[in-house]
């Protein structure tokens, strides 16, 4: 966190979780990111909201089938599909 630019640090301080911070840093490297990182911040908030909302749903669905918790690969698949939808093309996020 010490070697990131002040703009990134200011945005990252306002993000709700470490997951959102990881997503933000990943999104800043995307070619479609704007100079002030508005699109990266918006994407990080969307991905964080998606992860927070889907986790309880996937856990509840797995309990119906007698499993302890949801398969993390399913969450990774959903997050990758979201990244592909938002950034276009075939991107492979390393935050998932």
Structure characterization notes:
- The protein is an all-alpha fold and 96 residues long.
- It has one domain.
- Helices cover 65% and strands 0% of the residues.
- The protein is built from four helices and no strands.
- α3 (38-64) runs antiparallel to α4.
Which properties best describe this structure?
elongated, 96 residues, mainly alpha
The N- to C-terminal Cα distance equals 20 Å
Indicate the mean pLDDT.
90
Low-confidence spans: pLDDT under 50, at least 5 residues? none
Helix content: 55-70%
Which radius of gyration do the C-alpha atoms yield? 15 Å
Question: What is the number of E strands?
Answer: 0
Tally of distinct domains = 1
Q: By helix and strand content, what is the structural category?
A: mainly alpha
């Amino acid at each position: 966190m010490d070697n990131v630019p002040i703009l990134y640090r200011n945005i990252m301080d306002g993000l709700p979780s470490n997951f959102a911070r990881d997503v933000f840093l990943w999104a800043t490297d995307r070619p479609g990111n704007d100079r002030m990182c508005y699109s990266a911040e918006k994407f990080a908030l969307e991905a964080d909201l998606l992860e927070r909302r889907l986790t309880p749903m996937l856990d509840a669905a797995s309990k119906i089938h007698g499993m302890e918790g949801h398969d993390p690969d399913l969450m990774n698949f959903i997050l990758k599909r979201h990244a592909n939808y938002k950034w276009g093309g075939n991107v492979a996020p390393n935050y998932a």
